[in-house]
Design goal:
The chain has 7 helices and 11 strands. By secondary structure, the chain is α+β, with helices and mostly antiparallel strands. It has 3 domains: 117 residues, no CATH class; 136 residues, no CATH class; 43 residues, no CATH class. Strands 1, 2, 3, 4 and 5 form a 5-stranded antiparallel beta sheet that branches. Strands 7-6-8-9 form a 4-stranded antiparallel beta sheet, covered by helices on one side. The chain has a two-stranded antiparallel ribbon with strand order 10-11. A hairpin with a 2-residue loop joins strand 6 and strand 7.
């Protein structure tokens, strides 16, 4: 199935590029072909230089590898021939590629330029297939482990979200379907977020002002071999989404990669906090008795709103906005 999707994607890019090429003048085609040649020359040059550096380093290290023992003439000649063959392969491939017709080179350049445009278009189409009423207002990129593009797609107007992993999309969830979330590092719970309470374990992100409590150990490990986020949902078919940031890898906590992942994880958790707070705000104004919801009095709503502000669940701006709505101002 995914292969068919991939083939359709390539075909759409090919068709659009050919259509655009047919409308271009000869000068425009030559310009595109020149741009493609320059890009191709740059890539092959980089690989050729890297290959040369690798083989030169290899020959320099031969005495260490052989521990000072003399190297046989046949072995040395074989290594030199292989080094020359591989290093000269890049100029040959470059010559073969750039000797093609300008139209073919221009078409390749157009296909490269249109890939991102078509992929974005297909993503939007796929979201509409999952939920035709979904209005995409924000996309949160997730630096998850693996090659697939992972995202949280947010519809703030209708209070809904979709989880995307590569070409796969979850069903649409309401903010109210979000039960809680939890961050685990090296098998230990570090951060918890749930509706109706402040962030627990915020020190993991350096958010001292948000700490209510934490069960995590005070010991600081130097390495991280596992970092994952679990999003728990009110869904019998899919009760949780597990997002692996780091899996079975010894990553130094002082490294830039670890810091980038942690910053990204913080932004994802902030969005989940936002969704949980929105859920709490909605639930605060209505008490369900049987099947008929009974709306609280203005005084009761304002009292609860003030308590939420004092507990740090909402900002002063949220408080003022909801206050005006309650009083009809």
């Amino acid at each position: 199935m995914e292969g068919n999707v991939f083939n359709r994607l390539n075909q759409e890019i090919e068709d659009l590029a050919k259509e655009k090429l047919s409308k271009m003048s000869n000068d425009e085609i030559d310009e595109k072909a020149k741009k493609y040649k320059n890009n191709l020359t740059r890539v092959y040059t980089i690989f050729g230089v890297l290959s040369a550096i690798i083989f030169i380093s290899f020959f320099c290290c031969l005495p260490l590898i052989t521990e000072g023992e003399p190297i046989g003439t046949g072995v040395l000649a074989f290594c030199i021939v292989i080094a020359i063959a591989i290093t000269s392969l890049f100029p040959i491939l470059l010559f073969i590629d750039i000797s093609k017709e300008p139209k073919e080179l221009a078409l390749r350049m157009l296909k490269k330029e249109m890939e991102s445009e078509v992929i974005n278009k297909i993503n939007e189409t796929q979201v509409n297939i999952v939920d035709s009423n979904f209005i995409l207002s924000k996309t949160i990129d997730i630096m998850a482990n693996g090659w697939s593009s992972t995202k949280l797609l947010i519809d703030n107007e209708n209070k809904k979200f979709i989880y995307q992993n590569g070409k796969s999309y979850s069903k649409t969830y309401k903010f109210s379907d979000l039960i809680n979330y939890e961050v685990y590092e090296n098998g230990h719970s570090k951060v918890k977020g749930r509706a109706g309470s402040a962030l627990i374990g915020g020190a993991f992100f350096g958010l001292g002002g948000l700490i209510v409590g934490s069960s995590m150990s005070r010991n600081i490990d130097e390495k991280c071999n596992q970092l994952k986020l679990i999003i728990r949902l009110n869904d019998i078919d899919n009760p949780q989404i597990v997002i692996n940031y780091i899996d079975n890898a010894d990553l130094d906590k002082s490294s830039k990669s670890y810091r980038n992942m942690k910053e990204n994880l913080q932004s994802v958790c902030s969005m989940l906090e936002y969704m949980l707070n929105e859920k709490t705000l909605e639930q605060s104004y209505v008490i369900k008795q049987g099947n008929q919801p009974t709306v609280k009095s203005n005084k009761e709503q304002l009292q609860e709103l003030k308590e939420m502000l004092d507990d740090g669940l909402i900002t002063q701006e949220d408080f003022e906005q909801k206050k005006k709505q309650i009083l009809g101002l």
